[in-house]
Structure formats: C-alpha cells, structure tokens
Amino acid sequence: MQEKGNISIHTENIFPIIKKFLYSDHEIFLRELVSNAVDASQKIKRLASIGEYNGDLGELKVKVSFDKEAKTITISDSGLGMTAEEIKKYINQIAFSGATEFVEKYKDKGDEKAIIGHFGLGFYSAFMVAGQVEINTKSYQENTESARWICDGSTEFEISAGNRETRGTDITLYIAEDSEEFLDELRIKQILEKYCKFLPIEIEFQDKIVNNPAPIWAKSPSELSDEDYLKFYEELYPFAEKPLFWIHLNVDYPFNLTGILYFPKVKNELQLQREKIQLYSRQVFITDEVKDVVPEFLMLLHGVIDSPDIPLNVSRSFLQADSNVKKINTYITKKVADKLGDLFKSDRQGFEEKFENIGIFVKYGMISDEKFYDRAKDYCLVQNTDGKLFTLNEYAEFVQANQKDKNDDVIYLYSSDVLAQDGFIQSAKKRGYDVLKLDSVLDNHFINMLEQKIVKTHLKRVDADTIEKLIDNGIVIETILSEEDKNTIKGIFEEVISDKSKSVVLEAMPVDELPAVITQNEFMRRMTDMSRVGGGGMGMFGAMPNNYIVSVNANHPSVSKILQTSEAADQKKLAKQIYDLALLSQNMLTGAELTAFIQRTAVAL
According to the lineage, what is the superkingdom (predicted)? Predict the structure, then answer.
C-alpha cells in the first residue's frame, strides 16, 4: 500500500498561519498531541465498557520520548489507533474533528465529556516546531493493517504501510532548526507538568509518571478528608502557607463544572499573587487568566476550575464571551457567599479569627457585586479600635443611641491609622463615642458603599474635624474669649504659620481638648485617598493640593496664656509650639522643623 495526495484545505497558506498565528505559544504543541493520545486511550476504554471492543486493554499510558541526536520527539499511545482510511478522514481533512464525531456517535452510551479534543486542528500544532511529522498507527479493529503517514509541512502527504504491530499510535516530530529548544529534557518535563499534570491517563516521560490522573477535584467531596485538600494545595503551590479553608465546586446542570477554590492568607492590601486560579478543560490545563470565569473580587483565591462548557477559541488559548461563562461566574459568586455564611453561622469565633485575612474578599465583593452584597451584609464584620468585632447590624445598634447628630443622623467615626490618630481617638472616647478601625486599601470605597446602603448614616474620619463638629448634637459651647481676643489670636497664628495651604479658625472646644488640631475636609480627603487606590473618575482629586484647617481651641489655657504674654516674640513662640504640637499629632512635623521643636522642648524642660 502506498499513496500520495494533497491535504484537503482551502488555502495553501494554512501551515504558516498555524505556525505563526493560531497558537499563542509554541509549547502548546505538546499539550495538543498528548491530549490527542489521551483521547485515543479514553475512546478504547469507552468501547470496551460498552462491549464494542473485547480485546485486552493492556497498559493505557501515554509515553513521551525524545532523541537529541536524531532531533525527534515521539508521543506514543495504546489507544484506538487508525486505519489508512481514518487517517485520510481525520488528518488530511483539516478541522474535521474525530473527537466531535466520536462524541456524537456514542453520546447516549456514556460520558462524552471524557473526550478532550473538539477542534480537529490540535494535531497540526506539531508543525509549529517540526519540519516533518510522521504517524505510525494500527487500528483496534480486527483484520486491519498498520499505516504510516508523513508530511513535511506542505500540503503534500504520503501514506504507506506502517510497522506498528500493536494497537495504538506513534507520532514522531522531526524538530525544525528554529525549535531545537524543545529537544531538552527539562524543557519537555516543564511543559508536561504545566499542561498535562492532571490528564486522566498516566503520562510517562524518562521512565517516570509525570502526572496525577485522578486529581481530587474530580472526586466527590464525601470521599475526601481535610488532609486530602491540604495535600492537593501543597501539590499546586509547594511554597505557600496553608490555606484558611476551601470550597469544593461540583455542578452538572445547567453547565458542567468541578474544582476547588482555596482562601489563602492575604495581607491587608490588594496585591498580584504568583499563585493563580488554574483553568482546566477535562483535566487539560488551559490558562491561569480566569478573569471572565471568576468574579474579579475572587481573583486572589487559589485553586482549580475545570469545565468542558467554558468556550475557548480554536487554539484553546483564550476564553470567548458566552452565556455559560456568565452563569459560571454567578454560580461561583453564590457558592463563595454561601460558604462564608455557613462558616459564620456554624463557628463565629473561628470566622472572626479568619476575618483579618478574608475581609478583603468580603469587602471587595460587596463593593463590586450587588448580589454578593445582599448575602454578605449579614456576616461582614467591622472592628473598633478596641478590637471588638461587629456585624453591620450589630454595630448600627451599638452606636444608635449615642452617636446621633442634631438631624437625627447616625455618625460612624473611624480611624485609618490608629497609632497616628490616637489623640483624636482619645478625644472621641472622652465623649463616650466609639471609633471603627478602617485602615485597609479598600476601606475608602467600602466607606462610600456603606453610606449609600445604610440610611441616615454618615462615616467621618476621626481626625476630619473637631469632635464637636464631627458629631454636632446642637449643644453650643461658649468661648471665654471676646471677639477682639479671637482676632488677636488668629492674627498671631496666621503670622506663625507660613504654609498657605493651612487656614486658621478659632473654635469653642472643651478645656480638656488639645490647644489646636489640624484637620482636612472629609469629602476632599476621601476623594484624594480614593484616587490613590484607583477610584474611577477620582484622578482630578489626586492632582489637587491638600488644604487643611488649623482649629485653635479658644478655651484652652495655653491659648489664654498667649494673650497674657506681653512680648510679641514670646506670643509667637507659644503659638509656634502649639502649632507644632498639632502638626506632630498628625505626623506632619518632619525634618528641620521637627528638630527645632525637639530642641525648644528640651530647653523648656
């Protein structure tokens, strides 16, 4: 038997297209060819299970080998094999997928989702790296001869009698000069571990099995222990800390999806993680760019998602827009929300201990997803500066009676830096007020969201104004200074303060408050902070200069002392000391000014 002919395609330029444009990365060729070999092995198992093949299945592993001297890579399987006629049908007619036909034929007799390939072009990825490709194959069917197919990357091929004596297929790639990087043991091993690590048939390379054909996400949760989940996490991310907990995904309607998502320990900041969620299709690695499948707020999770129903482009390298993707995204959101809710209800103490690490997911989800907000509002926690944790409803009840202003609006005070704002926190506590600790990178957006969701409630940073103005309950504090004295004091401070970004006002405050405080308008400060963390449309605020208010306590003895001092120089010296104290309380006193303040204070001692 010998035959020559032309491959049935519509353009002479198909191979340059495949080589340069179809696949984004040339290493994909090994994934495609090994996947095809696994397909062939799965098919023969299927036929045996339904009684259409009665021979000995034998060992169904796929073997990958290379010969550096001969410049070849060979992928061998003991699967279905092909006849010469099948080669003509499945190989010579590009984009006719044998897997698609097989699934259609046997869809009512088993699990068609076990068959990987659906594109028909996977085999031709071999020509991205090979100058010539040879197939040597023998069909499982009785009384059929082995066949050999050779193609040099043009549209011409040759079919002749093969020399394979047992069922299965050998595909040999004669590696092109510009792709000899793949004739390296470590390189091949890395590609197999990346793309084929969890294929359902054993993959042998250099006499070692390089994959785990039965990953735990393909098993029922009832079969698995905590140790199994932790061991698998370590297999995925060998150097990562143990996860906090995990969610096992397992749904077969209206789409097929399995997987395991792990909640890692996350620092109190948004950051790109080296370990990402891995997307598989029938245990074949596709990508770790899963932004359309997984909601954005869960992109910091780790783990695996496997779905044959996620639409991919012809090269399986990119996700395509599809209603199933949206459904899967919604499902994952609900699954995560329900898991967090169950943890909160079943073990609140344990949930509170984990919240420092999972709070970033919860808050980000509430900000970005309305449906997630509806579920998470019942277990999202806020913490006050004393370390006590509350749900949103609990905190509303906690401050309801004591922190209302004259308009009957509830005021939540918060600190973005407990250490730096301690003086303001203590002033609030003197009045019996509570202060929340909201210091994560997301909290500016979280605060805005809460104000939109919780009626008649405002959030104000504890250093945004004097405490009497932050919670204006309508009680007027009288000043001991006359209007003339107030103008005198204001003039002295304005002369001492050379920074034009700071305005001086005299306030009637309690005697036990600081002699002066420096504050920034709450709205402008919040917009500026949001612009620094990427708040949409807030860029203009980031470019605007900061403006501050220096509020001088007209009732403080130190301020009265300025009026009692006769020398103008001494008046300014006292005002300067009060002003520097106010700067110091806001961490705004630095450099030479800080040194001068320390020296003055030391002399006074």
Answer: Bacteria
Q: Which domains are assigned to the chain? A: 2-209 (3.30.565.10), 216-343 (3.30.230.80), 381-470 (3.40.50.11260), 483-604 (1.20.120.790)
| 81 annotated among ligand-binding-site residues | no
496: its two tokens: 């001492």
Q: Number of C-alpha atoms within 13 angstroms, CB side, residue 405?
A: 17
414: enclosing H helix or E strand:
strand 410-415
Residues in the chain: 605
C-alpha triplet 226, 246, 357: angle, nearest 5°: 120
Cβ neighbours of 359 (radius 10 Å): 20
Beta carbons of 121 and 314 less than 8 angstroms apart: yes
Cα torsion at 425, 429, 433, 438 (round to 10°)? 30
pLDDT of residue 117: 45
| Of 101 and 494, more confident | 494
Cα-Cα-Cα-Cα dihedral sign, residues 581, 587, 592, 598? positive
Q: Which residue has the higher pLDDT, 9 or 90?
A: 90
Is 36 labeled as ligand-binding? yes
316 is annotated as contributing to ligand binding? yes
Q: Tell me the pTM.
A: 0.77
